[in-house]
Structures are given as structure tokens and as C-alpha cells.
UniProtKB/TrEMBL annotation, chains A, C:
This is 1,2-phenylacetyl-CoA epoxidase subunit A. It is an enzyme of class 1 (oxidoreductase). Keywords: Oxidoreductase. Residues 12-21 have a biased composition (Basic and acidic residues). Residues 1-21 are annotated as: Disordered. InterPro entries: Aromatic_CoA_ox/epox, Ferritin-like, Ferritin-like_SF, PaaA, PaaA_PaaC. It comes from Aliikangiella marina.
TrEMBL record, chains B, D:
One of its GO terms (cellular component) is cytosol. GO terms for biological process: phenylacetate catabolic process. This is Phenylacetate-CoA oxygenase subunit PaaC. InterPro entries: Aromatic_CoA_ox/epox (IPR052703), Ferritin-like (IPR012347), Ferritin-like_SF (IPR009078), PaaA_PaaC (IPR007814), PaaC (IPR011882). PANTHER family: 1,2-PHENYLACETYL-COA EPOXIDASE, SUBUNIT C, PHENYLACETIC ACID DEGRADATION PROTEIN PAA. The gene is paaC. Pfam families: PaaA_PaaC (PF05138).
Length: 318, 253, 318, 253
């Protein structure tokens, strides 16, 4: 009976996917679909949370009060996205503490780009512009993802991200049009974050482990390479407006393809950083653990307080 | 500037300093809170205080009339020139300390700003009207935290008590009037802080007492902020906060 | 029998004191003499140790590499003086951990001046010049103190302190002869540390609780007011060389007395700060405790290691 | 400067940066050590490294010939311009971390400086001769500490292991050669770091092995210091260290 049911459920699921209907938390779904989603969504959530660190690193040193307020608000938004995505992931039957545990023990990943350090104020601009820019390209595509809560999260998050990207670009613009020293800061930051931004789209389609199935299930809607090309095409003209040198000498308009050509990514670095050897991998997780551990007594106090309140309520009801 | 304008300028910068210094401390919680939700909440409070600082500084610059900007005030004065009350500059310490300090200033600002809304200076009255709403909201967050921590575990209660001990000597300065502030009171511009002390004491003691926590009457013991005599903590904060501006002064960011 | 012995010992002690001979650790001494010495010497030791904090506060911000090296070396010397004085105090039959406990619980005092904050680089100069200067005046007098180990400690410490005082004055001189902003820093630092330096000599002779007996026992050799006058007389000409304004408008040469007259000290502040209401009292002890507590695991490890080594040695001997 | 002088300048500044950054970290222990004796001892090591930094910088300024001083080099470059190897800039963390780091660099410098004494550049050889004696003395202090902590309590052993884990990825950079350093090696001025790695690994592993502590072969994983790519810690250190000079540049102190 189970297999009959299961077959019917599978058919219903396949129909929904084919007809571009959303899968909802209470719907039946294949185990691997669920696992795949948990992996991707939690990675996305963790990226928001870990991403608070490199930018947060400059909150106390922001050069003006306005910039400080904007940066603080941005990092807060990231925390908010993290929360929102954790909630969306929880609809798949996994708890936030399980998710955090997976992050801290290295079972779950986060965007590898946050393992690079922020070394100047310009890096805050570069992250907003390039990293959020790359994220948006990806997230716009994910607005049409097949899982309802994820799709709705993407729609909501995209709006704020475009705001962040504009703010990042604004920082870069002020620097690029400033003194030679400021322009140099902008150039240096862009040079350092350019390649890691391209790496954010993941390996080439031919190498991507999870892509095929994710595309079939319409979790992913466009291939890594297509999205990466889209990002390059939209970003190169922005670099020209800034008047900075291209971070990749091979960038060149290809009339025939209607796209920019560009140089090959250093995939060795990509895999090294993913596998834990980035400059800040250890620091990011250590920081996360330390904050979490330092907060344990607070969470414990809250639990104890609630228990006492519940007991009182029960006693007065009795 | 005549004497009255000088007093007004000094007053606005002092209130701006209180806000900018506390906002900086609160912003240090970013990515360090016990819950992700708290990172956001403390960030919101920090943002409110940055906003206040900017309004006070901007108006101070207008009063001064020398073309200085909010950032000139914030980034180009050293610790002897900052005039914030000391309670705002103390390090964030643990979460209990941060919340007790916040509770103390929230109670203070709810009343202080309410009265400042009656300032004869319309700009100040308008800033106060905006800010008092924020502080009321902050208090709605800090009070339950004090309650939960005071009635939570032995450890959380101990931390609350440590925080009270740490803050005891810094509370009195909130109610300390100087001559120039007094003269602004007489002109209807400022608020007489000293008159708020009794109610503050009563409110705080009643609130803490409900959780069986004792806090003595606030006494004026450590003072100096308004004359630029600070704790040793402020200088370290400013060296970080001002680094970029001090390194590359006079640029656009 | 005991009282005969005791009377003989007392007579021998009195004879030594009268003949300016030193009392040594193994000599008989009256209980109150011992207690008085422990109080004074440990207060002196604690002052050296707590004094590391206000100056240490500027090590990481010293304006040149040379100044940084000199300051670090100076603070080290203070630690060394602390050690030396703890050892000298231990000859009176009290342990270092008892002494540290008395400091941390507030039973023992330390120089009240270290409860003031260091707020600018000039404060480092002012402390070296004025605080060490006042200390030297006191310590030179104590070189003739009746307790041998204390006297020898003072002789040794005085040499380094004069070196420190010169370095402090050199900092003040560079600032006073620098830009108007630097000169202002120097003036401000001197103004703030002047009165607390005068307070270092303790209350007026008429008010001093321990002075009479200490003088009788030749623990103290000169009165508070005499030493204070000596300090003022030697310092006022130095202020003139710096070209700074006098920190006390009442300072004026009195031809008749052959001394400088000066204004009255704010004794209310003096007693407030002594009794715990100085700007940094709480911070200083908290810092000391925190460092001590953070080091507990290290001291525990050392004890455990030694115990293991001893056990091994015993086993191989057996 | 010709290319050779430029390489020499770069080399001297890099070695000076290594020293100044480590000395700064060590100086942070002042009044924070587990024993008063340790405050003094760590201060001594810090002083030795400040001394080295000054000698390297002074000679660098001489080579550059533009009239810059040691303080211009130390106080007026930002974190992208500092070229210290990353291991020197890591925060002091706990006492175990500080001592393990010190043990690692002591072992390294004892051999590196010994070889640098043969530099064809007499000034460098003289600096190395002075510094190697210091490092031998440092090693005589750091080794017993590692021993005592590794064989002390469970907690001290755990902390030693945490420190090793933390440092694992930063050791390899000590042995990383760049093109310009290689060309100085060929001129007999510098030392080939890469060739020291095998012996360093063997020494450290043997020493730790005697306390039953395992440390893997040093691998090059995190790099970037020589190109001004740092951890996020350095910027905060510099904002504090340089504050006065950045605020009031060009004065005498």
C-alpha cells in the first residue's frame, strides 16, 4: 500500500513541479528533495549570518556617522535574512539548533567568500557591490524555485539586497572619485573581491555535483555558468563608470556571443578555501562559537524564567 | 557666539556625545549577541542613538555657524574634548551589564526627553519628541530582560548584581547639573536633571525590588564626563572609531 | 620568665632603634612594629603593582617606538619593585598570596593617586615626573628606615625611580616645548596630577593616624608635611623651566621661610578617593582580580607539573 | 633605489614589521600575566622585539635614503602596507596560545638568525648576531612553559592543543620564499627560509612528542602577510598603535 501511495504522491509532486506549482511544507516530497533543500537553504542562511562578520568588522571604524548607520542597518538586515531563512528551513522538519550545530561542526557550509578578510573600508563597498550583486543574480533566479517558503524568502530578501548593492556601489563611487589614495583603496578592494565573487556561483556546470538534480526539481532554475555570465555582463559597465582598471585583463566584449569574455577562475584556490584553508575559515567559526557559548547563560536564564512562570501559572490555575 | 549660544552649543554637543558613545558601544554587540534576534534588537537601539547624535550635532553646527559638520564634531575631538556622561562609555561587558545600563538610561531618558519636549527651543523639542518614543520602546525591551535575568538562574542573578555594583557609582552623574546647563534651564531650553533623581530612584528600586534585587539610592560619586574627565575606556574607543578620519582627514566618504 | 625575656628583648630593640641600627627579620620586634611595617610595606608594594595599570594604559598607544620601549621598561621596573617589596614584606611572616588577598578584598590600600585615570599621553609624563618625583622624596627618607630589608629595598628602588622621573620630565619637556596643542596637553596633565601628587604624602602631620608611632620606631623618618614641602620646593622650579602655568595660583616663594607657599589641598577629595570613590578604584581592583583569576589555570598547571615531577623523582629514588 | 636596494629595503621593512607587531602583542600582557614575574618576562621579550624592529627600520631608512625615520615606517603605513608574516599579528589569546606562538617563533628565529649572521650585508649580520642571543634566551623560557602546560592539568593540556590548532595554518608562512627574497638569498644577503622547514618540523615535533602532544607537519595554508593581506586583527591593532601619530602627525614626542 505504501508504495502505491508513494507512487501517487511522487506523481502528484512531479506534476506540480512540471506545472510550476510551488511545493509547500505540508506537501509530500521526495526525501532527497527535502535533503537537497535543507542543504541549500541552510547554507544560504549560514552565509547571511557568517557574512555579518566581515562587514561587522568595520562598523566601529566607519568613516562617517551616516556610513556607520547605513552599515549597521545593513548587517542587521543580514541577521534578519538569516532568521528568515532559518525559519523557512525549519519548515522542512529541522530545528535551528540542529542547523547551528551543523554550521559549527563544519557539516554545513556557508558562502566561501566570507572566508576572505575585510582589510579596508573599501572592502565594505566591494562586498556590498560585488558580493551582494552576485547574490542578487542568484536570488532573482531562485525567486522561481519550486519550494514555496524558499521562493517567498527570496522575493523578500531580494528587495533589501538590491538596496545594499546600491549602497555598496555608492561607497565605491565616492572612493573611486576621491583622492588617488581613496581610488587605490577602491581598486585594491575590487581586485581582491572580484574573483571570489565569481566563485560564488559555484563550479562550472560540467563540474557541479548537485546541479543536475536541483535543476530537474526546479530548486535551481539557471546554471552556475549562465548566472556567472549574467553577473559579469552587468558588472563590467559599472566598473567602467567607476573608472577603475578591470580586475581581469582578459575581460573583453564579445560581439558575437553578446557577452563579455573573461579569464579562467583559479579553481584550486576555490576548493582550498571551501575546504577550510581560507584566511578566515577558522576565525569565522571560532567567532560564531564564542558568541554562541557566551550567550548560553542568557538562554539558560530565559528557559529557567519561563519554566518558573509556567509553574506559577499552573499553580494559580490549580 | 554669545554666551547663550555657547551654552547651547555645549549642551547640544554634550547630548550628541552621550548618544554617539552609547551607540558605539551597542554596535559592538553586532554578531556577538546571545540570540540572532538580540543582534538585531541591540542594533536597532544603536541606530536610534546614532540618529540622535546626528540630530544634536547637526543642530550644534548650525548654532555654531562655522560650517563644521556632524562628522567634524564626532571624529576630530579627542577624549578630553568629548563631554559625554561616563555611564555611556563603559565597555559592554556581558549581556547583563549591557541590559542593566540600558534599563537605567531608558528610565532616565523616558522622563528627561519627555520634559525636554517642552523646551523653548523648537528644534530641541522636536528632537526630544522623536527620541522619547524610541526610548519608551527601548524600555519595553530592557525591562523584561532585567526581569528574566534577575529571576532566571543563579548565574544570571549574580551577573545582574555584578552589573549593578559596576554601575552604582556612575548613575549619579546623570543628575548632575552644571552652571551652564542651569542657565539653559532658566531660559526654558534645558531640563533640570537634578529634579529627576528622586523619581528615577523610586522607579528603579520598585522595579528591581519586584525581582527581590536591591539597588541603593543613586549617589553622585564618579563625575567628570561633562568636563572631559573620562574613564580610561573612552580613549581606546575613539582610537578605533576615528582611525580613518584621523588618517585621511578632510575627504568625502 | 617570658616577661623578663620580653623586657630584655624590648630593651635590645629600643637600643638598636636609638643607635640607628637596623632591625633584621630574625630579630625580636614588637608586634605593633611588625604590623605597622606590614601595613606600610605592603601598601608600598601594592602601589607599585596597581601603578602598572594607569601607565600600562598607554603602552599600546605610545607615540614613538623609543617612547614605547622606555615606557614598557618602566612599567616592568614597577613590577620588579612590587616583587622586591613583596619579598621584603614576606620576611615579616606573611605570604604573597595573603598580601594579594588583602589587596583584592580592600583590606590593604595602595597609593590613592592610581585611582585617577590617564587620559592623554602627557599623563604618562606627568606620572613619571610628579608621581615618581613625590615617591622619591618619600623613599629617600625611607632609605634610613629602621627595618633592614625595607631600607635596602628603598636604596635599590630609588635609583630606578630617579631614572623614571627624568624620563617623565623629558616627556613633559618635549610636549611643553612642542606645538600649542602639545603644550596644552602637558599643562592639562600637570594640572590634573598636581594635587593628587601632593596628597601622596598623606594628611597633615596633625591629622596623621600612624605618624607618631612610626616616627618613634624610625619606620618613618620625616613628617608628611616636611616631605611635601620638599617636593614642592624641588618641583616649582621645574615647572618654571617647562614654561607652564602654575597648577596652584597660590604658589609663591616665601623669602622668610625659605620655602614655597602653596594653597590648601582639597582633603574632602582625598578622603573620598581613599575610601573608594575615585574614578578608577573599582576598575583597578577589577583589573587586578581579572588578571589573577585568568592566570589561575596556569598556576594550577605549574603546581600539578611540579607534583608530578616530584613524584617521579621520588619513585626513581625508591 | 635600484632593484637590489628596493629588495633590500623591502626585506628590512618586512623583518621590522614582524618584530614590531609581535612586540606589540607581547606588550599587551603588561599587568595581565598569571604571575608578576611573567609580566616582567613577557615585557623583556617585547622589549627585545621592539629593539629589533628599530634596528631593521633604521637601516631600512638608511638604505632608502629619503630621510624617513623608524617612526615614519611604524606609524604611517596602514594594514595593506604592513608586510609582517601573519603569525606575529594574531591576538594574544590565552597564556597557552602566547607561549606556543612564542615557542614556534623562538625555534624559528634561533636557526634563521644564526644563518642570517652570515649575511654578506654587515649591518644585517650584526643585527642578527645580537638578536640570535635574545631568541636563544627566549627559547629557554618558552620551552619549559610548553612542557609544564602540556604536562600540567587537563585544562592546560587542552589549552595547549587549542593553541596548536589555532596556529597550525599560520606556521607554513614562516618558510615561504618570495621572488625578491630569493634574489637576496642569491646575493648572500638573506636566508632561504624554505630550507629551514624540515628541521623546524623535526625539532618541534620531537619536543612536543616528549610531552605526548602531536603536531602535524607545518603546511603552507594561510599566506599573504608579505603582500599586505592580513587577518582582520592587524587593522584594529594599528588603529590603536598609530592613533597619536595619525592625530598629530609630524611632531616631536
Amino acid at each position: 500500500m505504501q508504495s502505491v501511495d508513494s507512487a501517487a504522491e511522487q506523481a502528484e509532486f512531479d506534476r506540480k513541479i512540471a506545472e510550476e506549482q510551488k511545493i509547500e511544507p505540508t506537501d509530500w516530497m521526495p526525501d532527497d528533495y527535502r535533503k537537497n533543500l535543507i542543504r541549500q537553504m541552510s547554507q544560504h542562511a549560514h552565509s547571511e549570518v557568517i557574512g555579518m562578520q566581515p562587514e561587522g568588522n568595520w562598523i566601529t571604524r566607519a568613516p562617517t556617522l551616516r556610513r556607520k548607520a547605513v552599515l549597521l542597518a545593513k548587517v542587521q538586515d543580514e541577521a534578519g535574512h538569516g532568521l528568515y531563512l532559518y525559519s523557512a528551513t525549519e519548515t522542512l522538519g529541522i530545528s535551528r539548533s540542529e542547523l547551528i550545530d551543523a554550521l559549527q561542526t563544519g557539516k554545513a557550509k556557508y558562502a566561501s567568500i566570507f572566508n576572505y578578510p575585510t582589510l579596508s573600508w573599501a572592502d565594505v563597498g566591494a562586498i556590498g557591490w560585488l558580493v551582494d550583486g552576485a547574490a542578487i543574480v542568484n536570488q532573482i533566479s531562485l525567486q522561481r524555485t519550486s519550494y514555496g517558503p524558499y521562493s517567498r524568502a527570496m522575493i523578500r530578501i531580494c528587495k533589501e539586497e538590491s538596496f545594499h548593492q546600491r549602497q555598496g556601489y555608492e561607497i565605491m563611487y565616492a572612493l573611486a572619485k576621491g583622492t588617488p589614495e581613496q581610488k587605490q583603496m577602491a581598486q585594491d578592494a575590487m581586485n581582491r573581491f572580484w574573483w571570489p565573487s565569481l566563485m560564488m556561483f559555484g563550479p562550472h556546470d560540467s563540474e557541479s555535483a548537485h546541479s543536475g538534480r536541483s535543476m530537474k526539481w526546479k530548486i535551481k532554475r539557471q546554471s552556475n555558468d549562465d548566472l556567472r555570465q549574467k553577473f559579469i555582463d552587468q558588472t563590467v559597465p559599472q566598473i567602467e563608470v567607476l573608472g577603475l582598471e578591470m580586475p581581469d585583463p582578459e575581460i573583453k566584449w564579445n560581439e558575437e556571443r553578446g557577452h563579455y569574455d573573461s579569464g579562467e577562475i583559479n579553481w584550486e584556490e576555490f576548493y582550498q578555501v571551501i575546504n577550510g584553508s581560507g584566511p578566515c575559515n577558522h576565525q569565522r567559526i571560532k567567532h560564531h562559537k564564542a558568541a554562541h557559548d557566551n550567550g548560553e547563560w542568557v538562554r539558560e536564564a530565559v528557559r529557567a524564567y519561563r519554566a518558573k512562570q509556567n509553574q506559577k501559572a499552573a499553580e494559580s490555575a490549580a | 557666539m554669545n554666551q547663550q549660544q555657547q551654552n547651547l552649543f555645549r549642551f547640544l554637543v554634550a547630548l550628541g556625545d552621550d548618544s554617539v558613545v552609547l551607540s558605539h558601544r551597542l554596535s559592538e554587540w553586532c554578531s556577538n549577541g546571545p540570540y540572532l534576534e538580540e543582534d538585531i534588537a541591540l542594533g536597532n537601539v544603536a541606530l536610534d542613538y546614532i540618529g540622535r547624535a546626528r540630530m544634536f550635532y547637526q543642530y550644534a553646527c548650525e548654532v555654531e555657524g562655522k560650517g563644521r559638520t556632524e562628522d567634524d564634531i564626532a571624529y576630530f575631538r579627542n577624549e578630553r574634548e568629548y563631554t559625554n556622561l561616563l555611564i555611556h562609555e563603559l565597555p559592554i561587558n556581558d549581556f547583563a551589564f549591557t541590559m542593566v545600563r540600558q534599563f537605567f538610561v531608558d528610565v532616565f531618558y523616558c522622563e528627561y526627553l519627555k520634559q525636554l519636549m517642552n523646551s523653548s527651543d523648537e528644534t530641541i523639542a522636536a528632537i526630544a519628541a522623536k527620541a522619547v518614543k524610541e526610548s519608551r520602546y527601548h524600555l519595553k525591551r530592557s525591562e523584561p530582560w532585567i526581569r528574566q535575568l534577575a529571576e532566571g538562574t543563579d548565574e544570571s542573578l549574580r551577573r545582574i548584581k555584578d552589573a549593578l555594583l559596576e554601575l552604582e557609582n556612575f548613575v549619579g552623574e546623570l543628575f548632575l547639573m552644571s552652571d551652564w546647563e542651569q542657565s539653559l534651564v532658566e531660559q526654558g531650553i534645558a531640563v533640570d536633571r537634578a529634579k529627576l533623581q528622586k523619581d528615577w530612584d523610586a522607579y528603579v528600586q520598585k522595579f528591581l525590588g519586584e525581582s527581590n534585587v536591591h539597588f541603593p539610592d543613586s549617589q553622585l560619586q564618579i563625575r567628570g564626563g561633562r568636563e572631559g574627565i573620562h574613564t580610561e575606556h573612552l580613549g581606546h574607543m575613539l582610537s578605533e572609531m576615528q582611525y580613518i578620519q584621523r588618517t585621511m582627514p578632510g575627504l568625502q566618504w
